[in-house]
Amino acid sequence: MAEGRFTNPVVATLAGIKDFFSPQKLASRFSDGDRADGMTVMITGANSGLGFALAVAFAERGGKVIMAGRSRIPEAGEKVKKLSGSDKVEMRFLDLSDIGSIHRFVQSLAEDGILLDVCILNAAVALPGSRKTSSGQDEIFLVNYLSNVILTRLLLKKSVIRQKESGIPSKMIFISSDSHQGASSIDYGEFGRYFDYGVSKAISNYSYFKFVLNTYATELSRRVNDTSVKVSINAICPGPVHSNIVKEAPWLLRMILKGIFQAVFKSPAKAARPVVYMALSKDYDGSTNEYLHMFNPKRMDPKVYDPAEGEKLWDRSMELLKNIDPDNVSYSG
Ligand SMILES: NC(=O)c1ccc[n+]([C@@H]2O[C@H](COP(=O)([O-])OP(=O)(O)OC[C@H]3O[C@@H](n4cnc5c(N)ncnc54)[C@H](OP(=O)(O)O)[C@@H]3O)[C@@H](O)[C@H]2O)c1
After folding, report:
1. Residue 69 Cα, ligand 1 centroid: separation in angstroms?
2. Which atom of ligand 1 is the closest one to the Cα of 53?
3. Which of 7, 61, 155, 234 has the fewest Cβ atoms within 10 Å of its own Cβ atom?
4. pLDDT, tens digit, 9 for 90 and up, residues 143-193
């Protein structure tokens, strides 16, 4: 059975508190000189929490920001404009639990001739249990993992993200979680199959699918950057963030977790800093398959780097998409 590192939300949250006090090796490398002038940055799940703070930070640093999300349109975008003092901010609808929505979103970017310099795969859910999407998959599986496969494949196939003329690779950053460490190997018996489960399995799935996501990101980099780095594909855990991630938890648990978040977790603006650093600093130009845990360079779980596992995950993901996405021909292969 697929298992993530945690099954208890309070234990997972307490592990986050420990992270809060860990040293931040590269924090001093981040500077006001890391600018986004002339760049186009797209962030998924940008209407809330870390994604919203990232939108403000990139807009403040001179970038054109595309906020992708399924709610608070256009209010969140207007708020980002106000907070950053920039009007180079737009919102586009994207519901990652709806495969058709991902196709329409990328099509709109391609039709508008958008070329991304930075793409932040940030959106995710933490649900109290299983929930079936319209295409029949479990929502945590689809939103936290498979939608990112469809989105990144489409962005690359339609050249919305590609190697820039300057030769400096564009950057794709997967927002992960250090809770992916220690997950079980990928269980292909469960892969993409819907079944009912409750809170413990949901918490376990959250960290397990971050592990699966990191394995995909590593394999994607192997395939895209076969001879040279064309698109930097890296992952980062922002550490504990005081965000809306537990908004669907049962009432009492939500109150407990919110209390802990408020007391000791970082503000989204502070948690966004290592992500902005990884996206804009020259330190990460041309790098790929790197992982930061906040400002600390680290190895991901060793299983993430196994090429055989990466290839198997790729093949099984494409196989599944052939069955559930009628438009899969636009990115498969
Ligand atoms: N909070 C933490 O302590 C922590 C720690 C490590 C890693 N992270 C990671 O940080 C990232 C951001 O999370 P957060 O903490 O900022 O939580 P958050 O405030 O809940 O933000 C999550 C974002 O994802 C969006 N989203 C969820 N389902 C979506 C869908 N079907 N289609 C499009 N967008 C969808 C949400 O939109 P709605 O507002 O419409 O739901 C929201 O904008 C996630 O990848 C999370 O796993 C968080």
Report:
1. 10
2. 16
3. 7
4. 999 999 999 999 999 999 988 888 889 999 999 999 999 999 999 999 999
What is d(CA 133, CA 125) in angstroms, rounded to the nearest whole number? 13
DSSP classification of residue 261:
H
**What phi, psi does 155 have (nearest 5°)?**
-60, -40
Q: Which of 19-28, 69-78, 231-240 has the lowest mean pLDDT?
A: 19-28
CA of 264 to the centre of ligand 1 (A): 19
pLDDT at residue 23, rounded to an integer = 81
Q: Is 93 helix (H, G, I), strand (E, B) or coil?
A: strand
Residue nearest to atom 34 of ligand 1 (CA): 45
Report yes or no: 188 and 280 within 8 Å, Cβ to Cβ: no
- The ligand 1 atom nearest the CA atom of 16: 3
Cβ atoms of 77 and 52 within 8 Å: the answer is no
Establish how many alpha carbons lie within 13 A of residue 215's alpha carbon, considering only the half-sphere containing its beta carbon.
31
Distance, CA of 50 to CA of 61 (rounded, Å): 16
- 123: CA distance to ligand 1 center in Å? 4
Burial state string for 38-75 with b = 16 or more CB within 10 A and e = fewer than 16: ebbbbbbbbbbbbbbbbbbbbbbbebbbbbbbbebbee
Residue with CA at minimum distance from ligand 1 atom 47: 124
Q: Which of 270, 310, 275, 276 is nearest to 292 (CA)?
A: 275
